[in-house]
Every structure is written in C-alpha cells, then in structure tokens.
Write the structure tokens for this entry.
Amino acid sequence: MPYRLEGQSALVTGGGTGIGAAVARSLSRAGASVFVAGRRAEPLQAIADEIGGHALALDVTDAHAVELAFKNIVLNAGSIDILVNNAGQSGPIGRLQDVDLKAWRDCIDVNLMGAMHCMRFAAAHMTRQGSGTIINMSSRMGLQGYPMRTAYCATKFALIGMTEALAREIGPSGVRVNAICPGAVSGELMDRVVARRSAAEGRPPEAIIRENYTDVAALRRWVDPEDVAETVLFLASEAGRNITAQAISVDAGRF
C-alpha cells in the first residue's frame, strides 16, 4: 500500500484550519502520528482531538520555540519523518508604493523565516536519521507575480528556491524536499483575501472571484483544501520516493 504511513510521525504547521487541517486529517488516515502546530490553541486542539493527534502551540517566527518543539516531538515520537511547512499569512494587499512596511516585514517573518526555522531543524534531524520528507506550501503566486501582492509573492517565490537548494543539499542523506503550489483554495483565508482586495480595488467580491480565480482556471473552479492534502500524502508516501526538488501545482489549470 504505497500511500500508507504507519510508524511515521508528521508535523503540520498552520494545522488548525484550511489546508493544514485537511493535511493533518489525510496524514492521520494514512496511519501517521500527527502533531498539529499553530498559534491558536482552540482550532489546533479540535483537529488534534478529531484525528487522535497532538496539538502543539507554536510560533514559527521564534527559532528557539521551533527548536524546542522539534526536540519534544522526537522525545515523544522517536522521530520526525514528515514536515509540512504550511504556516503562513496573506500579507498586505495594496500597491507597493502605499504598502505598510511593518506588514510587509511581518509577512516575510511568518512565510519565509518561519518556514526556514522549521526546515533547518527538520533537516538536521532527518539527515541524522537518514530519511524523511519536507513539503513546503508555496503558491501559484510563487510561480507568477500578481499585482497588489508583492510581499506574499516574494515569500512564495523564495520558498521554491529554498526548496530546490535544500533538496540538493540533503538529498544524499536520503531526505526529500518538495513544494506544492496551490491555486485559489476555497476557505476562510481566500474569503479574507477577496474582501481586502475588494476594498483596495473598489470592486465587488463576485467580480474579483470570477475574473481572478475561477474563470482563469481551465476547470473553472476553486481548489479544495482536500485536493492539496492528497498531493501532500502522495509526496510524503512511498509513492513519491523519487520525487524531490519539485514545485508541483495544484491549481485547476490556472493560466
């Protein structure tokens, strides 16, 4: 059964809602012991209780806290076999010349530095054990720049570069590193993005959705969080054993 993960432990950051929650469910169904990490305790605990996993309060921008989290997971589970770097934020939405610089830096701290902290400790542990897989959640906006989203695009482009570099760095130790680039994923995050973009552009949300997200996809639809989660499962499992240094789009054929 190539998609089974019995005996493996997984850390999913940003695991309380949306894509992260769907990933946690998918990995748990495949047999992995899942640690669900994030800033908000209530949704984390709800997902952990649902899947029989472990809730872990974690701010990925705090390198020391990330180090302690990895040590605790190894102490309790014996290993970390799968890291899904999903924690992130949408960043400021607006013209670059008008953007709030603090909000721009905050986006870098969470989406890029936070992912780097997790990759750093995962790489150290996985190279010692001689196996493991890291899956970074990039975006369609990591492949193509979008107006009004400079901070988010910068982080997601950079994450793909880090994925490729780290994959080549630790591949000889048996560790794989890939990125997933979702398109427009339905859920609370996209609802907030559309609302903020509507306010910034002075256009109704329905027009923004149609013109920027659904009508520009070959399949004329949103991507569901479960679609992304199943791709994570494939990459984490034995079925993806020869896939590394890749950025894989799950975007309903965005063009």
User: Anything to note?
Assistant: The mean pLDDT is 95. The longest strand covers residues 175-182. Strands lie at 9-13, 33-38, 54-57, 82-85, 132-137, 175-182, 247-250.
